[in-house]
Each structure stands twice: as C-alpha cells, then as structure tokens.
Write a structure and sequence with these properties.
Number of helices of chain A: 5
CATH architecture of the largest domain in chain B: 3-Layer(aba) Sandwich
Strand content of chain A: 5-15%
CATH class of the largest domain in chain B: Alpha Beta
Structural class of chain B: alpha/beta
Shape of chain B: elongated
Shape of chain A: globular
Number of domains of chain B: 2
Number of strands of chain A: 2
Structural class of chain A: mainly alpha
Number of strands of chain B: 9
Order of helices and strands of chain B: EHEHHEHEHEEEHEEH
Strand content of chain B: 15-25%
Helix content of chain B: 25-40%
Chains: A mainly alpha, B alpha/beta, C alpha/beta
Distance between the termini of chain A: 52 Å
Oligomer: heterotrimer
Number of helices of chain B: 7
Largest sheet of chain B: 4 strands, parallel
Largest sheet of chain A: 2 strands, parallel
CATH superfamily of the largest domain in chain B: Response regulator
Amino acid sequence: MRLGYPTSIKIIRVPCTGKVDALHIMRSFEKGADGVYLVGCREGDCHFERGNFRAKARVEQIRKILDAVGIGGHRLQMYNLSSSDGPMFARFAEEMHARILEAGPNPIRGAVIKQKKVQTDQNQIAGAAL
Amino acid sequence: MIVADKKPIEEIIDYVKDYQSILVLGCNECVTVCEVGGKKEVGLLASALRMHFLQQGGEVNIGERTLERQCDHEYLEEIRDNIDHYEAVVSIACGVGVQFTAEKYQTKPVYPGVNTLFMGANEARGVWSERCQGCGQCILAISGGICPVSRCAKRILNGPCGGSTAGKCEISKDIPCGWQLIIDRLKALGRMDDYEKINPIKNWSTERAGGPRKVIREDLKL
Amino acid sequence: MKAKTPSKLEKILASGNMAVTSECGPPRGSDPEGIIRKAEMIKNHVDAINITDNQTSMTRLCSLAACIRLKLMGLEPVLQMVTRDRNRIAIQSDILGAASFDIHNMLCLSGDHQNFGDCAQGQNVHDIDSMQLIQTVRYMRDEGKFLGGDAIQRPPQMFVGAAANPFADPYEIRVPRLAKKVAAGAEFIQTQCIYNLDKFEDWLSKARDRGLTEQVYILAGLTPMKSAGMARYMKNRVPGMDVPEAIVKRLADTPKEKQAEEGIKICIESIQRLKEAKGLAGFHIMAIEWEEMVPEIVEQGGLYPRPNVD
C-alpha cells in the first residue's frame, strides 16, 4: 500500500500492547517524548485474550498521573485496529501527530534545558542514587 | 497481608512541594504484592514527582529505593548512610513502614504515600478484601472459620442482623453478609447445632480498645 | 406466664389479653411537642408506646428523653436501645437512667448501619450485640449486678424485648435465631412489618412447634402503606422486607386518592387474620408519621377497648 505517516513518530514494536508497562510510558514522558500512543489489536481479538485491555487500563491510569503532574493526559492515547488495517494505522498516526502539534512540546523538555543551563555538572546528588 | 491503596498524587505533591530532594521509599513485602508500594510503584511515583518538579522549575532530586522490609531495623539501617542526601522521605510502605522509618530517622520528615487499609486476601487479580482486624482473641473456632468481627459490618457475634438480604449485607449489595457465610459454612461442616450457642460478650481489651498493643516473647528475646 | 416486673405491658400479656403497642419516632430537634402530640393521639388505643432510637441512623432527640416525656404524661413507654451508638458503660448507664424514671420496658436492637443516616462517616460501637444486650438487661435485673460484678442499688425492673425479622435471610435460621433470643432472656418480641402473611404464619407455627410461643410473647409488627409508591419502596429498598407483589398491585390498582385508605384496609385485614394465629400475643402497629390512623386501625381490628390492669 505504501502509505505514508508522519516522520515524527518512532515505532517501538512489542509482542502485545499488554507488554507495555506503566513505567515504560512514564519514563518515555520523563525523557521528553511529546506524546505516546499504543496501537493494539481490536478489543476481543487479543491473541493473549486480555493484553489490549490491560494496556487500556494502564493508559487510563497513566493519563490521570500525567494530568496530575501537569504533562496532560491527552498526550497519551490507546488505539485499536486489525493488524491488516494499514490505512487505519496511518490515520491514527496522523491524528496523534496533529494532536501533539497542537499540544506543543512536552513541557518537561523546556524545563530540563533550563535546568541544565543552570547546573551543568553539579548533578551529583541525583547521581548518588542509593 | 496488609493491603494498601494509592493516595492521590496531588496529595503527595502537596506534602513534599517545599523540598529540594526527596527519597521515595518502597517495601518488598505486602505493598509489593498488592502493587501499590513496591519497586515498580516507587519508579512510577518518582517519575511523576520528577516531571512535576521539573515543570515547576525546581531542582528537585528524587531518589528511588525499595527495601526488603520497612518494618525491620536491619533493612531500614541500609539507608542510614544515604538518608542525609534527602530532605524528606515519601514512604509507600504500609503505615507501619512509614512510622518505623520516622522513628528511626528522628530528624527526617517522612510522609505517607499510600493509604493503609486492612489485613486481607487476594481474592482475584486486582481484588483484595478484608479478612482480619487483629482483635487479639481469635474466635474463628466458634464461627466455622469465618470471622464475624471483620466480615460483619456491625461486628455482631450473634448474627445475622435483620438487614441480611439474599446473602448480602444491608450496607451494600456488593458485600456478602458475613453471617450468611458463617451459616453456609456451619451447614457444610454439619455443625448447625453450634449456631444456637450464644457467643458471650467479647473481651475487646486485646483489640484497639485496650490501647497500643505489644507482643513480648521471652523465648525469642536476645 | 406470670408478670415479673411492674410493666403494664407485661401484665396485660400475662393476663392473656392481646397486647397492642405502637411507636413514635422522636423529632429531629429539641421541641418535645411532636412526641406529646403523637402520644395524645394514640394513648387510649395502645398499651405501650415504643420510642425509636435514632432509627435508620438519622440523628434525632434521644429515645430515653422521649420515653421520660411519655412517663411524665402517665403513659407506658418502651425504650428502644441500639448497640450501634453505645459501649457497655453507656448501655448500663442509660438502663439505670430509664429505671430511675420507672421505665419498665426495653427493646434490644443492634440498629441500622450508620451509613443509612446523616453521619455515614461516623464510627459505630457494637461493643456488644443485640443478643448480648438482652443478656445484659436480664443480668442487671435478675442478678442485680453490673456486668463488672458489682451490686446495683435498686436494680432496673425491665420487661425485656427483642426484635425478630421472620423475613430476613437466611430463612432457615429465623426460628433458631428466635430461640437464641429467648434463651438469651427475651420476654417479648416485636416483629418486622408483616406483609407476607403466609410466610409469617409459617414462621410462627415453626416457633410454636419448638415451644417458643410458650416462652415469649410475640407481637406481630404491622405498618399501613400510604401509597403504592411506599409499597414499592419497601419492597425494593428496605433491607430484610418482604412485600408480596399482590400487595403492591392491590395498591397500584387503587386510584391514587384512595390508596391510603386501601393501605389501612390491608392493615386491618392483616390484624383480623393474624388474631386467629395460634401463639400470637398481640400487635405492634408502626404507623410511620401517620400516628393519627392508629385508633381507627385498632378499633376496626377489633382490639378496642384496651384492657385495664393493675
């Protein structure tokens, strides 16, 4: 089909959206991702029966945390499609791309840059992880 | 095990908003099993706090550590050398862990990161329910192994009350009537005669009512 | 059975007469006028008046104070006491307080859970349960002692009652549970509101088979329905209530303005039928915020005039 989708999107392949841990999502945002979305199989079609429902529940949980800490839960989205549905995959990518463009950059990035300017080398306390 | 539940992140942020370095301290025991205070939850809370403070423009250092147990001296000692890197601790162990950490490190503010609820069992994936209130005088022998203290909303020792409907408690259709469970169990055991024995007034002095409790085992003391 | 206390209610029952009791709910305020007015309406038609104790966990004027009001009017109160709000100190203390005003009847209850009322965030006590409350009052009266073992000067002279709900679940323990209350020392029973007469008669006959009706006076609880809506609410919302569909339908088929009248009729018919039930000692008519109807129900039910004892 050779369908295009925005180049801003980096795909991470997982065996099942159920494999995506809440911590993976949180760390992505912490490291500066502007948006994260999960594309799972259609509900009811999970090869592992409930993997995509688990992912959905985690997305809901993390959205609340993102709202609470000011990143915005709308930067995280769960999608479902049939594995052969290329056009739908491209549409989700466009939709998410547009949403993130409107939302702007992850506020964490700006905050990190500002902070790095202030203290380039004295980050030893954080380094002194227990 | 001891069952706890999440605290709203906003509440935790409010506790620690004025600190520059915070240790998020988890526990490998009960709270890990009920997925609210183990290593992974330490990671999630630390990540959330970092994102929050970064945006506030603060230079807040968030440390992560999960101890084997927070209710034992030897494990809590493991952070003695590092604790001074932090101005405050958010413990996501049960209330016991929070307090034991606070007792041990007198000058360090320790905040609770979870709500500790009860002693319960893992009924199903993601479902925990209460089984014991630690009354200190176990009466399970007379009630067929089902506890009227923890499973009856009125702790009635001679139940059920008149509110038991279709096996459910009067306070909610989602809560089984503890006395219905006891009766079902006595029947299954062929011990319905026991139902008619009147359980005497209970001595609650071994429970919360008697003041803070302590067990001293001379045979185990060093 | 012979009367053991100065209770007028007990004397009437012991004399073999059918007793009639009713109840009044205290006001949600400190004005005693409501209690006095309600009592005036029914005083010639009932032998004793129960005063509820923060029923459905809504905070109200206390049962004991309202009972004292009745006593000052020369009437016969039944002090209802729930174990929800008092520990054993307060329970014994309130019993003595009641006894000091020569209140001679008490109904021992566990009480609705507080989450039904206006203090859902409050603690409940349940230091002892209703069964143990029966034991406690009997012990104070018969042994003349506090639970702690010390002697009571002028022990309370209480005629001790308990509630029974023949309709709560599980049904098979309803009679054993009654037996347990009798064994604990209950001398009279006031039942939950009865709408399913067949089931009640079955329960009563099973109680009779066990000889319980010889040991305890059973008063059948009746509450007239004001409307089909109330019947539906009782059927669906009130825990441990058994309202047959036929009752709901009978009220629903009656024109709205006549439903109250029909409700009274159902109540009177119930009395007429249950009067014949062997082992029944009387009626407890709970006309909720409808006390003015009690005289008519008692008269039409053939329970008037009330006997004189002393």
